[in-house]
Structure formats: C-alpha cells, structure tokens
Amino acid sequence: MRDRWLSKRAVSLHLVALVFVPACGAAAWWQITRASDGNGLSYLYSVEWPIFAILGAYFWWMLIHTDYESVGLKGMRRRSTEPGPAPMASAPTLPTVPSDHPEDIDPELAAYNARLASLSVQGAKTWRSPERTVVRRNAS
Amino acid sequence: MSQLWPKLTQRGLEGALFRYQVMANVVGVLIIPLFVFTGIKIFSGHGKLAVEIFGVSHGYLYIVYLITVGVLGLKARLNVVWIFLMFGAGLIPGMTFVVEWWIVTRKIHPLLAETAVSTPMGELEVT
Fold first, then answer.
1. Which ipTM was obtained for this model?
2. Hey, is the C-beta of B81 within 8 angstroms of any chain A C-beta?
3. Would the pTM of this model clear 0.90, i.e. be above it?
C-alpha cells in the first residue's frame, strides 16, 4: 500500500495530476470566456478541456493501480529469471467430474459444475477483479 | 490487491494495438491540414470554415486517440514516460507517425513476441 501511493513513480504521478487537472480547468474557463465572445471553435474546446481533466484523473488512478511488476515485458523477464510460481502462466485447471459412463454426462450440468469450480478457484470478486470467464479458443 | 488489470493476453494486446494504430494515423493525418489552414487564416484571414472543420474533427478524435493510447499503455504496461509521449504526439504534426513507429517496433512487438510464448493460441486462457 505504501509502495503504491508513496513510491517515487507514484509521487511524480500525483504531481503531474495535481498540475494537469487544475490546468485543464483553467483552460476550460478561458475557452468558455472566449466562446462567449463569439469564437466558434472555442465552443468545442470548452467542452474538450473538462474531458481532458476527467481523462487525466482517470489515467492517474489507473496508473497508480495497474500492476507493473508482475505483468508486461518487465514482469515477464523478471519471472523468467527467477523461478517460482508463475501467476499468469495458465488458467486454474478445472477438476473433472468423475464418471464411469462418460457418455451419460449431461454437458450442461458438467459446464455448470466446471463453472462453480472455476469460481471457487478464483476467490472473491472485487471492483478491480471483475468476474473472469475461462474461454477455450481454437478447440480443434 | 495484486489483481492484474487490464488482463494481458495476446489477443487483447493485438486489439489494443490495432485501435491505437488506426487512431494515431487518423489524428496524424487530420492535424496537418489543421496547422496549414490555421497558418493561412493567421496570415491571410481566409479559411475560417476549414479551420473549424479540421479543428472540430481533430479535437473530438483526439479524445478517442487519448483513450486508445491509455488502454494500450496500461495493457502493455508501458513506461509512463512513453504514454505521455504518445499523448503529446497527437498535438504535433507528423509526430504521431514517428512515435507510433517507435512504440510499435521497440516496445509492443517484443512484448507480443513474449506473450505469444507464454499464452500460445489454443491454450486455456483467462480473459
């Protein structure tokens, strides 16, 4: 938690956001005064600057919260040098339903059970980890 | 709180890369006439309509460009400096093409090469 908000990178992001968002607000106000003087293009820019401010705040939040250490080029290289459990290596393996007669497994029921198993493996759902689905691609 | 978002998969990265490349080229093409007509308008007083057309279209598409840059940057975990460079490139004529080429060849292609190894096609994949 301390690393997330107080690392060097995080503090510089806070500073950039603290400068950028009020600057967008000031620019929006400037464009509104110009638009009220009759400058047609300023009507657009007085809409655009508040959007820039919102985007700046959003990307500030996302950049603080995105995990740069374990994913991406840096994380992949780090993971390949230090052995250990690979967090993204594969999806949790789903337990299969044991049956003596594979032909009378209801496919819908099996899918439901697999879904329950995958949910229990994934753990709690939070606003940052929305429900994940396991997708099998290129099954042939 | 070590949840990984946005997910990094090969397909997701390719999609984000494609959307970024489309928007980089659209914005990069639109800003050239915007600068040309703004110069003409400043020096001769003509071309007000052209400035407004290209100003409005570049203005709104630049917002879309910013979103595609942010999504690609966050997905690929690009350094914040490169993300800011991509943001700024959409405002300088000609810069989107240079920055896009540099980011794609130096940053995204190596990453795609490694995600292709770690999440090969046809494997089970968490999206």
1. 0.82
2. no
3. no
